[in-house]
Every structure is written in structure tokens, then in C-alpha cells.
Amino acid sequence: MARASVREQIVDAAFEQFHRLGYNACGVKLITDSAGVPKGSFYNHFESKEALALVVMERYGATRRVPALADTAVAPLTRLRDHFEFLASDIEKYGYERGCVFGNFSNEAADHSPAIRDGLVTSFGSWSAAVAGAIREAQADGSVTSQQDPEVLARFLVNAWEGAIVGERAAKDGSSFAAFFTLAFGTVLR
Amino acid sequence: MARASVREQIVDAAFEQFHRLGYNACGVKLITDSAGVPKGSFYNHFESKEALALVVMERYGATRRVPALADTAVAPLTRLRDHFEFLASDIEKYGYERGCVFGNFSNEAADHSPAIRDGLVTSFGSWSAAVAGAIREAQADGSVTSQQDPEVLARFLVNAWEGAIVGERAAKDGSSFAAFFTLAFGTVLR
């Protein structure tokens, strides 16, 4: 099997370390050490840590199963629940550590890097749009009330999910995720 | 007027810099430089950056107007709205930068510092308990439905608020705060 390219090794290591430590605690040397490549090789592949963060953000987005929100083989309200249940399981498997790369970068880097901020606006925007699409279908089939604008509902749910992660990173007891599912599916999407 | 003690100068500077830059981007030297005191003086007053962060977290908590949530001179649902409107104005004044010290520390430091994590559990816990107290009163006077457990509602709202901040730090356009107020007061607290 072909050995992963140096660039791939760097992206894989950065994906892991940005997720585990956040943006600011994770320097170029830590990433190249973790990738097992010389620090000097970094700048052959990336202009900056910021540029690498954009690649990681895009790759992370591709793991969020966003396309499944448009899978018409599944009832739209079920799709919405499956989506957030997948995201929950993905954080529970780390014992409520690491959180969401988007949330972490938003908190740590959006104020200080216009490029990362732009990437986050795109990432949160396409995620919210996919959630809104499923909500719109659920409103059409009557499983969700049509009283609220689907875009506003989606924005609220995506943010409430990000906040549930904030709560779990502190408490690590499942109570914030439980409250999210109770209110999101018992009250907000009704 | 007496000059602020070195300890106070350090706490004031740390409050500002932790809020502005987060936990990891803000080292002891940056704090002492910002305080205008020698770096060597830091360890006369604090065992570690972590110990200082706990002091800052407590001081930040004291600025959140949590006691007003128990002010029976004001209707409980009005108190809840006033509370989140105050928190919103406190972030809008920085152009949606800086966020919430609790949320920032939760994302950046809770996984790696048991002491900060404990502080956050206490901070989020007492904040949620105060929100739950106002919700309980609002349920008693009929302004909020009694169908949901006030503790679960409070946990959800506090987290949804933290998530709205995550959304605003990326978009900085007011849409996440607007979605929070629409859903929190139009649907969740009904």
C-alpha cells in the first residue's frame, strides 16, 4: 500500500490535534511531531496553520453526515433525530471531550482570523440550510408545526446543539444532551 | 486614591485578556505585561495560570446579574427575558466578539484542567439553578407551561444561550441571538 503523502499525514494529525486540543493550544510543531514529519516540511504544503485549519474544517464537515438530512427514503423528522443522535454518539465516544471542531474554532479563532471566520460562516450556513431543508419537509408532512420559519428553527437548533456540547464538556454527565433531545424534539419541533 | 494592589492589577488584566483571547492564547507573560507588573510578581500571588483562571471565572460570574433572577419585585417571565437581554447586550457591545468566559473555558480548558472543569460545573450549575428558580415561579403564575421540568428547561436554555454565542462569534450578524429570543420566549417558555 502506498504510504500517505506528507501532506496527508499533516492533515490527519491536525484533524486529531485540533479536535483534541483546540486551535490555540496546537502549534505547527505539535502537528508535525504528531504527524511524524519534519517541521520544515509543513510550509512546503501549507502557507500557515490557519490555511491548514481551513482544510481540517472542510474535512470535519464532510464527516457530519449532512447529506443524510436530504435522504427522502427516511421520514424528515426521523432524519433530524438521527442526525443529532449521530452527532451525540460522536461526542459520547470521547467521553464528552473534544467537542465540535466548528464550535471550538468559533470560540477560539473566529474573532482573530477572518479566513477561519469565513469558513465557519460557510460551514454553519450549509449545515443550518440542510437542517432547515429537513424541517421544511417535516412541516409539509405535518410532523413539525408550520408556525416557525424553518431557517430560524434550524439556526436555533444548530446553536442549541453547539451549546449542549459546551454544557457537556463541563459536566460530562449526559444531562445537557438529554435536555437537548427532550426540548428539541418534545417542544421546539412540534 | 490608593493604587490597586499588584494582585488586583493581575486579576483585572487577566479578566480582560482571558475574555478577549481565551485561555490558551493568553499566557502569564501576556497577562503581567498587560497588567504592567513584572512577570516574576505573578507567582507571589497565584500558584498558576489555572488558579488565576478560577478567580477570573468567579469574578465573571458575579457580573452576570444572576441574583436579579430571584427578584420577586419583577414578574418571573420578565426577569428571564431581562436576564438574557442583558447577556445579549453585554456581547453586542463588543461587536459579538469575546463571547462568554464560561463557554470559552468550557471549550478550551475543561478537558485538560480538572480544577477549571469543577469551577465550570459550579458556575453553570448555580446559573442554571437560578434560571430554574425563575421558571418555577413563572410556572406557578401560569406564564410558562408546567409540562416540562424546570431544571431541564433551565439547562436547555442556558446551553442554547451558550450556543447562540457560538453562532454569533462566527456570523456576527445578530441572527443567532434573534433565533434564540424567538424560540426561547415564543416556543420553549410557553
Automatic annotation (TrEMBL), chains A, B:
Entry superkingdom: Bacteria
Keywords: DNA-binding, Transcription, Transcription regulation
DNA-binding residues (ranges): 27-46
Residue intervals passing through the bilayer: none
Pfam families assigned to the protein according to its UniProt record, in alphabetical order: TetR_C_13, TetR_N
InterPro entries registered for this protein in UniProt: Homeodomain-like_sf (IPR009057), HTH_TetR (IPR001647), Tet_transcr_reg_TetR-rel_C_sf (IPR036271), TetR_C (IPR011075)
Gene3D superfamilies: Tetracycline Repressor, domain 2 (1.10.357.10)
Domain HTH tetR-type: start-end pairs: 4-64
PANTHER family xrefs: HTH-TYPE TRANSCRIPTIONAL REPRESSOR NEMR (PTHR47506:SF6), TRANSCRIPTIONAL REGULATORY PROTEIN (PTHR47506)
Full protein name: TetR family transcriptional regulator C-terminal domain-containing protein
Lineage: Bacteria, Bacillati, Actinomycetota, Actinomycetes, Pseudonocardiales
